């Protein structure tokens, strides 16, 4: 299995991505979760991470607290989408497991330094704050990362938190730009592709019918987080962002994209956090990102359900 560190701010769609990985233990070895301030404050994303590990029967996986703020900005949250706990929907028990006393940034650095080079993948489902801080503190780890696969950015599908910015980049644009410029092998799953992955009523019903605790809880979570997007977009379902990250790692052939230059706007008030994607190769700037533009939504839900069927 592929060794992964998950950076996350659960979050209903993060829960889906985490369950997908935990349900396929022969494909993913989850080394730890780094809770990130993003969809909601760190205290909640930490607690939600612990709740998910108890729900999935994997309490031994360590959870680390990341930074409680973006690198140089005040935190912007998305409780209008995810609810006041950040992961509203089902009522899950208060977790009995505790986070590690080690800080998330230290965990990232120590793991990358102790594992053989190029054997650990970073899956980012959240703002990129903690990976950027790790790279600032320990630039040597850049060469040791196998690859970074992140749900972040938007270009053809413009923005979701401002007219031009996607939430995960907008929350910490300096972190995103730091990683885009770090030379690591980087794949982005932007809104351009996640907007194709719609959790329709039929798909959520099929999920619920699996009948396991995890499947029912996830269907309830997604039903909650959908309600905002259904009104906003008027589509037949809400985009399911997070699981695109593990699906890309499992079946990259299900996606179409290009290696291009992408830079983040970090100064403009109007377009802060915009990911400027040079899709047509207009500039000579270095090609630093594999930018995914389309994917297979049927396959995403098929694999997600396969994974859910293997969980309690
Ligand atoms: C991203 O923003 C968050 O609110 C979602 O959970 C997802 O990570 C989509 O732009």
From TrEMBL:
It comes from Cylindrodendrum hubeiense. Keywords: Glycosidase, Hydrolase. GO terms for cellular component: cytosol. Residues 4-301 form the Inosine/uridine-preferring nucleoside hydrolase domain. This is Inosine/uridine-preferring nucleoside hydrolase domain-containing protein. Belongs to the IUNH family. GO terms for biological process: purine nucleoside catabolic process. InterPro entries: Inosine/uridine_hydrolase_dom, IUNH, Ribo_hydro-like.
